């Protein structure tokens, strides 16, 4: 594995920042299904997360300054306690 600025969160952050600079009234929205089906989601499900801790996916969303997001159906795959 090699670090890359062409893919991943760094690239997404660059694209989001650019889009927001080009249009005054932008809204960054997530449509859900973030904590299941991704490498980070699978890792955290196996590792476990303590009540009150913030899932790393949501920490990343906060760094990208999302305006709104919703819970997708796959957020429930690991059960309500995990959610």
TrEMBL record:
GO terms of molecular function: hydrolase activity, acting on ester bonds; metal ion binding; nucleotide binding
Domain of life: Bacteria
GO cellular component: outer membrane-bounded periplasmic space
GO BP field: nucleotide catabolic process
UniProt protein name: 2',3'-cyclic-nucleotide 2'-phosphodiesterase
Lineage of the organism: Bacteria, Pseudomonadati, Pseudomonadota, Gammaproteobacteria, Vibrionales
